[in-house]
Amino acid sequence: MRLRLLGRAFAGSALAAAMALPAYAAPAAPAPASGSVAADGLTRVNGGPKGSQAAVVKVGRYLDKTEKPNDGEFHFNVYKVKRTVSNSTIQIGITLRPEKYVPGQRLQGLLGYSDPKNNKDLIICRRLKWDVESRPQAMPLATQTFFSNNAYKECGSRKELLFGFTAGSESRVPEGTPYEFSVAELPPVTNLSKLPYPSAPDWADLPLDSDPTVSSSGGASMSEAVVLGTTSTTHVDLPLGRPTWFAVPLKERDHLQAVAETSAGEEAGFGAAVELRIAGPLGGLINTDDASTAPPPYTPSTNLTKNRTRVSAISWRVSPRNLSENSDYYGSSKIVTSAGIAGYYYLVLYVQKLPAAKVDSIPVTLYSKSFQVVPYGDSPAPIYRGKAPAFPAPVGGKPKAYDPSDEPTDEPTESPTDDEVDEADEETGSGSAAAEESDRNEVLWGLGGIGLGVFGVGLISGIVLLAQRRRT
C-alpha cells in the first residue's frame, strides 16, 4: 500500500486538515545504535525522530523510552533494520517497562519501508495490534509482537525496513517510559506448505506433586529471565506485585505447559490475584484458551484462597507457519503469531500485592515441561534457506539446587498509602473492565481526533510522517 505524505492531496477535507505536514527533510546520515549490551542484556538506543534519522539496529534486544510530543503531536522513535537473508521474515517485539502500570497501557507501532521511487511515499507492511487476546487478566504487563510479510510484495523482499513506536493520546503511557524491544530474523522456509496448520495442542501429562529440584526468585524482566530446563520443578520465592520471568528453550513443533501452585494465601492476603502466562521469544502472549483436554480446573488466572491455589498455562505449538497463516495487514486476531520461531519461551508468574500482605514474597512451586507432540501423524521439520543471526538468550542465568532448609528473608512491609489502596482495589477484578476500556480506546492512528474508524491509509500515513518532527 502506497501512502502519499502530502496533506494537500486531500485539501478541503477534514482528513487533510488533520494530516497536513511540513515538507519532507533531506535525508541525513543514519544514527547508529548507541552503547553496548548492559548487564540486563539490553542495548541502549535512541530512536530517530523520522525515517531519515532512524537508529540502525540488528537482531538483538534493546531499551529505549518514549519521548515528549512536539507541539502536542505524536513523536515516533524510528529504527532501521537490514535483512541478512533475502526474503526473510523480520519480527519485532515490544514490552513496556513503566514505573507504574495502568491497565490498558500500550504503544502504537508501525513497520514498513520508504518507496525507492519517491521518498515522500511510504509502504506500510503492518501495524502493531493490541487486542483482548494479547492482554493478561490481572498482571501488570503489556507485551506484543508484529512482523513483515508478503501481503505487499516488497515488504517481504526489501533490504531495509523501518519500524517505530509512539505513545499516542490514548496510550496511557507517560513521557519517558522505558520499553524493551527485540528484533529477530527468520530465514525463508522452503517446505512451508508441508508444515501443519496452526493448532492448539492437547494437554499432556505434567509431573505434578513432584518435589522441587531447583530454586529461584526469577527475573524482573524478559531479558533477565532465569533459564529453566525442559522439564523442571522449581521452588520460587516469588516477589509480590510484579511479573516474574522464567525462560524455557523450545524447538520447532514443541509446546510448553506449566502449573504454579501455592498455599500462602494467608501471608499474601486472601483474594490476591494470581496469574501465569506464556510469552514468545520476543514477547507477546501465546497462551491458548483452547485447553479442553486439560485437567480441571484449567485456568491461567484466579485468586488466592485458604486452600492450595493453582494456575496453569499451555502454549501454542512452535512453527514458522504460525506467521504465514496470520499475515493479514491489520495483524492476526490469534495470538499464535508470537510462536513462530524456535528459542526461549517465557513463563510469566504474578501474585498481586495487597495492602493486607504480611510478606514481600511467597513460596510457589512451578511445574514446567516442553513437549513435542506432532499432530496429524508424521510431520516434517521446517527447512530454512540460509542462516540468520541468532537471537540472544536471556541473561538471568540458571536456578540453584533446591535446599529445603533455605528460608527467604523478607523486607519489612511498609504501611500502604491511600494511592496504593486505591490501586489495589482497581487491580482486583478489573481484568474484563480493563479489556473493555482498552477496546473502546483502540489505537488512534490519525491526528486531531482521527481514530481507528478512518481507513488505514490516512490513519497510518499521518502517524508515520509525524515522525519527521525533530525531538524537542
Helix percent reads under 10%
Strand order of the largest sheet: 1-9-8-11-6-4-2
Number of strands: 24
Low-pLDDT stretches: 1-33, 326-333, 408-472
| Helix/strand class | mainly beta
In CATH, the topology of the largest domain is named: Jelly Rolls
The name of the CATH architecture of the largest domain is: Sandwich
Element order: H for helix, E for strand: EHEEEEEEEEEEEEEEEEHEEEEHEEEHHH
Question: Overview of this structure, please?
Answer:
This protein is mainly beta. It folds into two domains: 2-186 and 449-466, no CATH class; 197-410, Jelly Rolls (Sandwich). Helices cover 10% and strands 29% of the residues. It contains six helices and 24 strands. It has helices at 14-19, 265-268, 321-324, 418-427, 431-440, 456-466, and strands spanning 2-4, 31-32, 43-44, 55-57, 60-65, 77-82, 89-96, 108-114, 121-127, 143-147, 160-166, 178-186, 214-216, 226-227, 231-239, 244-250, 255-262, 273-280, 283-285, 301-303, 309-314, 343-351, 361-371, 400-401. The protein has a seven-stranded mixed β-sheet. It has a six-stranded mixed β-sheet with strand order 21-17-23-15-13-24. Strands 14, 16, 18, 19, 20 and 22 form a six-stranded mixed β-sheet that branches. A hairpin with a 6-residue loop joins β8 (108-114) and β9. The longest helix is centred in the C-terminal third of the chain and has 11 residues, at 456-466. The model is unreliable at 1-33, 326-333 and 408-472 (pLDDT under 50).
